[in-house]
Amino acid sequence: MRLAVQLADPDYGWAYVIVGWTLTAAVLAAYFGRLVVRIRRAERTLPPETEQ
Amino acid sequence: MSVWREAGLVAGKDLRIESRSRVAVSQILPFGLIVILLFAFALDPDRGFLARVAPGLFWIAVLLASLLAIGRAFQTEEQHNARDGLRLAGLDGAAIFLGKAAAIALELLVLEAILGTGVVLLYNVSVHGIGVLLLTALAATIGLAATGTLYGVLAAGIRLRETLLPLLLLPVLAPVMLGATRAFEDGLEGAPGDAWPWVALLGIFAVLYTAIGVLAFGPLWEES
Amino acid sequence: MRTRDRLLDPRLSRALGVASLVSLVVLALFGLWGAPEDGTQKEAQRLMYLHVPAAWLAYLAFGVTAAASALFLWPRTRSLVWDRLAGASAELGVLFTALTLVLGSLWGKPVWGIWWAWDARLVTTAVLFFLYLGYLALRRIPSGDPIGSAKRNAIAALIAFVDVPIVHFSVEWWRTLHQKATVFNPQLDAKIDGVMALTLWIGVIAFTILYLYLLDKRYRLASLEDEMEEREVEAAIAERIGAPVEVAR
Hints:
The structure holds three protein chains of three kinds.
Chain A: H1 13-45
Chain B: H1 3-21, H2 23-42, H3 49-78, H4 82-88, H5 93-122, H6 130-154, H7 161-172, H8 174-188, H9 192-223
Helix pairs in contact in B: 1-5, 2-3, 2-5, 3-5, 3-6, 3-8, 5-6, 5-9, 6-7, 6-8, 6-9, 8-9
Chain C: H1 10-34, H2 48-73, H3 80-112, H4 120-140, H5 146-174, H6 188-191, H7 194-241
């Protein structure tokens, strides 16, 4: 089977684009947010850093 | 003592344990056979599917059974502090790797012979190109055993080993599964010429992972 | 021994954060609006501006994991810094591999008419995803000996990395039907429109900056978690031997 690059769904291509871009933004924001929250929590638990 | 002699001793030890405990014969082999049987339930035997997809089903069954055999090979080291004993014996890491891998490979070859016979009889497969099939099985089994021994020691001694090992091992073995299945298909279809590139791929895989195992087993064995 | 450290200077990290935000906004402007509509694929082609950079990042991240693991194993450069870097990069790699697969699927449906094709690059990417998911699972299992488990992790990362080309070639032989790589093609201009190529490059640059920023953050978190674990162990030992606990040093 050879897949041709053609337009299987000409009318709703934009819908897939919106879903894809929104999903990417949401996933990256969620990952980043979780990282920041975990870093904050760890920094609160640990004693403050001594500056060298 | 040379590495080969030490490896022979380790392989002999593992095979003796297997022959006495009979876990391979009484548990792993029946497991492989029931998998073969289950495939016939899943894919209706009346539609002639089974003979066509027999190579894939055979290798899936071997792969699943080999997970058990690999887990078993390291489980024996955890009983009665066997690992410490083996460590204190002063054997070379490479020798322990080669010995354990050889023992697993031998067990798997026997398993493959029996499962293969089962597949031929139960799925009504007509066998051609026996030479290609044997070489394929040999190369794939060495690759399986080397990778399995390497990951077996990697996961040895840590919690959750039983669930972790399949996740680590199966993606790495994807090329073995692919190559062995294609080579078997070509061999059975009477086109052994098409199978040779796959056999070569399996050979490269086997050599590569045996080499990595020889190098990496020692340090991992110390940590496990 | 205190393990808390950073990959980058905090000011540099902040600058990277701002730069990645700005470049992602520029990418969105170009990708969703600035770049012209594709002749055959129409609007659906706009998924390329995320899919291709995400795939590039996944490979970059796994490459960094392999390099850091090798540096850990090399006796002269042995340091837990490399272990943490390898873990942080692998996590980002898995995240972006997952994004690549999902975005590719979303792009495939309107263009090919199917969600998934058994094409060489798709299958390789899927195997890659599971390969490194296993590596992360191995890392997540705690052990009392940081150097020992770091060595184990490093070897596991290298074994996985060696498998990547074998998986790639075996799957490539098995079936080849994907459209050829576009970004790194020398005849770039002949293939895609200038603004499209520019947008694609903006995407690659924006994602790379984002990767560096997230890598720094993930590294920071790993070092903090290592320190918390270390302190817990110290406190437990002190309690056991009955010595006065000196928590904050």
